């Protein structure tokens, strides 16, 4: 069977992201040729029921804790190799012990050394809901995410045209999955608010330079409507950083590299969860 027609988004994307997406389109073409869309959808719809990603974040905040989405990743374009040895199941257990609310697991291999098996192992090791952290560009990937056990997907507005973002969200919702939509500037935020998801992530990392600045969340989070849930992403390392984010409305955070570099990730997660 021929691979699905997958084309680049009809929007301008930052240099680093453009390189990643070019490889991702090719990867999805190859993987979708091996497993047809109809078969991947069948696997997705027969998978066990998703865990409540958004509900668990809301409960954490209501209890006075930080809603921590703790990330599991071995490497990144900006940080290189981050953790070795790398044991997703043990890390998931440690995050759970440290009070994390949800997990985020990288499944992109070329740039993050991630694999679907990492997500499967992490989810099986603990009861926390799991976000598939990858560059979603085609419906096939959404079905694949549910089939591998993901409870939530990431939609990066810098990588997607509005129509594609809407299509991917609709599929995720049909599978009872949550969606975290990610933005980096005011224009992307305005576009993201056209989606139905309540989870709006503000990435403090500039995708062109890969530098982080918490001022990005300080600028954008106050503009997020009260019926949405701001999630501050990237560059958060200390309890003081957590309090800076909470001061502008982001009581949910996504933290990866800082936690991955700690010898005791449970202790590091606990310090962020109870920073307020």
TrEMBL record:
Its EC number is 4.1.1.48. One of its GO terms (biological process) is L-tryptophan biosynthetic process. Keywords: Amino-acid biosynthesis, Aromatic amino acid biosynthesis, Decarboxylase, Lyase, Tryptophan biosynthesis. GO terms for molecular function: indole-3-glycerol-phosphate synthase activity; phosphoribosylanthranilate isomerase activity. It is an enzyme of class 4 (lyase). CDD domains: IGPS. Gene3D superfamilies: Aldolase class I (3.20.20.70). It comes from the Bacteria. InterPro entries: Aldolase_TIM (IPR013785), Indole-3-glycerol_P_synth (IPR045186), Indole-3-glycerol_P_synth_dom (IPR013798), Indole-3-GlycerolPSynthase_CS (IPR001468), RibuloseP-bd_barrel (IPR011060). It catalyses: 1-(2-carboxyphenylamino)-1-deoxy-D-ribulose 5-phosphate + H(+) = (1S,2R)-1-C-(indol-3-yl)glycerol 3-phosphate + CO2 + H2O. Pathway: Amino-acid biosynthesis; L-tryptophan biosynthesis; L-tryptophan from chorismate: step 4/5. Residues 17-272 form the Indole-3-glycerol phosphate synthase domain. PROSITE patterns: IGPS (PS00614). Pfam families: IGPS. Belongs to the TrpC family. HAMAP family: IGPS_B (MF_00134_B). NCBIfam families: PRK00278.1-2, PRK00278.1-6, PRK00278.2-4. This is Indole-3-glycerol phosphate synthase. It comes from Roseicella aerolata.
């Amino acid at each position: 069977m021929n691979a699905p027609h997958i084309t680049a988004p009809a929007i301008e994307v930052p240099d680093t992201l453009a390189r990643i997406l070019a490889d991702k389109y090719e990867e999805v073409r190859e993987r979708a040729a091996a497993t047809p869309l109809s078969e991947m959808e069948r696997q997705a719809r027969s998978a066990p029921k998703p865990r409540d990603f958004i509900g668990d974040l809301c409960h954490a905040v209501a209890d006075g804790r930080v809603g921590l989405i703790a990330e599991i990743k071995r490497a990144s374009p900006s940080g290189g190799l981050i953790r070795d040895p790398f044991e997703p199941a043990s890390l998931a257990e440690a995050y759970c012990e440290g009070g994390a609310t949800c997990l985020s697991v990288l499944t992109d291999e070329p740039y993050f050394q991630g694999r679907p098996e990492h997500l499967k192992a992490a989810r099986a090791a603990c009861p926390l809901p799991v976000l598939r952290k990858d560059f979603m560009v085609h419906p096939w990937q959404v079905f694949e995410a549910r089939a591998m056990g993901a409870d939530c997907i990431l939609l990066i507005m810098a990588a997607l045209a509005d129509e594609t973002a809407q299509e991917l969200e609709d599929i995720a919702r049909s599978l009872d999955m949550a969606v975290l939509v990610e933005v980096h500037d005011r224009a992307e935020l305005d576009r993201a608010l056209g989606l139905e998801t309540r989870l709006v992530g503000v990435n403090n990392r500039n995708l062109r330079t890969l530098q982080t600045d918490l001022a990005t969340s300080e600028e954008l989070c106050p503009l997020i409507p009260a019926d949405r849930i701001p999630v501050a992403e990237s560059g958060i390392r200390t309890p003081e950083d957590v309090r800076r984010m909470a001061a502008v409305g982001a009581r949910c955070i996504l933290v990866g590299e800082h936690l991955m570099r700690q010898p005791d990730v449970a202790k590091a997660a606990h310090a962020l969860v109870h920073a307020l």
